[in-house]
């Protein structure tokens, strides 16, 4: 039985009021009554002479005395009801929490007042302590403004104080600022624009003739249409250099041609550098919003930077044979971007000729090497082969002789001056898959080949059609090596990027069968199948610093010292993707990074 329905009987004797009996039927009710007794709650009655007044001795203050006794009675009753409500709500004994309690609190309060005579008084003795202090305002039975008790008034005061505290913290303003930041519009993409798709005509819904109870129509089955390939493999002959994104009549502007023909300036490469001063210069290289542009349509396989100093000209090759040229400081056409289609397969390697800056040589998996000549406005053939090619480098200072590598492990020496578009020498190496070929910067007779699980250095004078032996070998790689490059000035260091999550630096001062290892840097090179493989490259203006992409969050590009220490991380609000391919300007503090969606990011000092 709920506690508010407990039976109470009062006997009034001579006018004493005494609590005769409280029938308790549950253990929780017994516990509540026990708590009242332990707190020394005593109910006593006043002598009748203090309450009953003689008719002959009535005074003017008798009514006020009776009213004060009523307030004391109501205060004691309220505290007694509070004790009964302190029963655990899990047992269902609280009037507010008991779903079976149909008697509202206000009616119970009025019933309790009606049960007590006007001339009865209840005195309560409570020991001093925290309990007496907490109920001191309730013992007098007085109600505050609006008919609220002292407890309810204190609760409202606490609520107001909490509101004032939270308003002082400015939580709402901070929340609104964060929401506005999250809803900030993305920067507009520069470069190639997404073509507007033509509206597709609605096709009538096919309906079954059988369900429509119609006879089948004996119509012939339509023949399958022969779709032409997107591009023809191994196109022979020169290709006109017309930007496909500018239309059939699009031509390169004269300002772009003038910058393209600017003479090459050699970089001031130093063997040693003050790292503290160099770090401060790297901090000044930032990425601006207008220095990000979509240059090609698919993910980038190769990047090259023109050596001109008046502006920044960048070239990039993508997965489907497209080559994009970007004048960073121009807004002609698609924000200075010009797109060409000289190949049909990934453009995996490209270089500007040091002796002829107007020549851009590109190599593709389709087995061709082409030279982009802006003066003639053509992509001319340099070399063509049926098997896919993977990389090349200049074997001579004037760029007339090339050395190219194929995916099947063959290496070809190509003379650009020959009219046959064939190789002078072809040799089969022990490396199964060739990723990169790099020529020594001082002695052009030596070149390095990186491939599946091995990196070897060969002498071009000792090459044979079969059985060519290496003069040096770089040991320690357990998986495929994505790239291997000599240091830019002396060639005394070799930097390799391997799929075993290691960047290694070797001492190539002396060629021997086992080149000593200087540093091995732990680096996450697992880019997966949807991103271009990482290739760490040297800074051409320094001898001992290199840069590589990173899989870390937030997106960044990392620069290391040859000792393995991290010098700097290139970051920016506009850098939101993994940039696998990176290239430096030959003489300026400019870093160009390409991602797998065809965008280039230019960090400039």
Concise account of the structure shown:
This protein is of the alpha+beta class and 605 residues long.
Description:
The chain is α+β, with helices and mostly antiparallel strands and 605 residues long. It folds into two domains: 3-54 and 62-154, no CATH class; 239-263 and 273-604, Methylamine Dehydrogenase, Chain H (7 Propeller), CATH 2.130.10.10. The chain has eleven helices and 32 strands. The strands form eight sheets. The chain has a five-stranded mixed sheet with strand order 3-5-32-31-30, with no helix packed on it. A five-stranded antiparallel sheet has the order 4-13-12-11-10, with no helix packed on it. Strand 16 (410-415) and strand 17 form a beta hairpin. The longest helix is centred in the first third of the chain and has 24 residues, at 62-85. The radius of gyration is 45 Å and the shape is elongated. The two termini are 83 Å apart. Mean pLDDT is 78; it is low at 1-24, 40-60, 84-139 and 226-230.
């Amino acid at each position: 039985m709920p506690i508010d329905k407990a039976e109470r009987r009062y006997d009034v004797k001579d006018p004493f009021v005494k609590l005769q009996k409280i029938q308790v039927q549950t253990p929780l009710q017994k516990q509540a009554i026990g708590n009242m007794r332990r707190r020394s709650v005593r109910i006593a009655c006043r002598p009748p002479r203090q309450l009953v007044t003689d008719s002959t001795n009535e005074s003017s203050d008798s009514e006020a005395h009776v009213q004060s006794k009523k307030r004391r009675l109501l205060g004691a009753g309220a505290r007694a009801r509070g004790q009964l409500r302190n029963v655990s709500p899990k047992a269902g004994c609280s009037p507010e929490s008991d779903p079976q309690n149909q008697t509202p609190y206000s009616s119970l309060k009025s019933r309790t007042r009606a049960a007590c005579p006007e001339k009865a008084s209840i005195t309560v003795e409570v020991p001093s302590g925290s309990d007496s202090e907490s109920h001191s305002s309730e013992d007098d039975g007085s109600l505050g403004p609006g008919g609220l008790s002292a407890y309810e008034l204190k609760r409202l005061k606490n609520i107001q104080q909490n509101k004032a505290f939270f308003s002082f913290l400015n939580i709402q303003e901070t929340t609104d600022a964060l929401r506005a930041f999250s809803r900030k519009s993305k920067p507009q993409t520069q470069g190639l624009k997404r073509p507007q798709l033509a509206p597709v005509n609605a096709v009538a819904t096919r309906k079954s003739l059988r369900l429509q109870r119609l006879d089948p129509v004996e119509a012939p089955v339509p023949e399958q249409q022969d779709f032409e390939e997107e591009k023809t493999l191994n196109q022979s002959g020169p290709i006109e250099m017309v930007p496909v994104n500018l239309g059939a009549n699009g031509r390169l502007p004269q300002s772009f041609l003038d910058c393209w023909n600017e003479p090459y300036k050699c970089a001031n490469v130093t063997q040693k550098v003050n790292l503290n001063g160099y770090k401060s210069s790297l901090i000044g290289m930032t990425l601006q919003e207008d220095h990000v542009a979509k240059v090609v349509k698919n993910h980038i396989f190769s990047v090259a930077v023109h050596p001109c100093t008046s502006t920044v000209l960048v070239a990039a090759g993508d997965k489907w044979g497209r080559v994009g040229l970007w004048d960073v400081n121009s807004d002609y056409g698609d924000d200075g971007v010009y797109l060409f289609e000289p190949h049909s397969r990934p453009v995996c390697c490209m270089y500007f000729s040091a002796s002829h800056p107007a020549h851009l040589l590109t190599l593709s998996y389709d087995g061709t090497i082409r030279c982009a000549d802006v003066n003639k406005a053509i992509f001319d053939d340099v070399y063509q082969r049926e098997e896919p090619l993977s990389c090349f480098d200049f074997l001579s200072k004037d760029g007339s002789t090339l050395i190219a590598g194929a995916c099947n492990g063959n290496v070809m020496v190509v003379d650009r001056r020959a009219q046959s578009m064939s190789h002078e020498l072809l040799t089969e190496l022990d490396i199964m898959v060739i990723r990169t070929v790099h020529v020594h910067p001082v002695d052009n007779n030596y070149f390095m080949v990186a491939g599946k699980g091995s990196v070897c250095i060969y002498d071009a004078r000792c090459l044979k059609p079969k059985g060519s032996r290496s003069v040096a070998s770089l040991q320690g790689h357990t998986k495929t090596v994505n790239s291997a490059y000599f240091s830019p000035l002396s060639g005394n260091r070799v930097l390799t990027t391997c799929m075993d999550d290691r960047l290694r630096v070797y001492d190539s001062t002396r060629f021997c069968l086992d080149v000593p290892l200087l540093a091995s840097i732990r680096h996450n090179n697992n880019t997966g199948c949807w991103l271009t493989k990482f290739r760490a490259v040297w800074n051409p203006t320094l001898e001992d610093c290199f840069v590589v992409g990173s899989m870390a969050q937030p997106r960044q590009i990392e620069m290391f010292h040859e000792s393995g220490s991290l010098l700097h991380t290139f970051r920016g609000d506009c850098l939101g993707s993994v940039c696998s391919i990176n290239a430096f300007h030959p003489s300026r503090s400019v870093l160009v990074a390409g991602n797998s969606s065809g965008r280039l990011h230019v960090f400039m000092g």
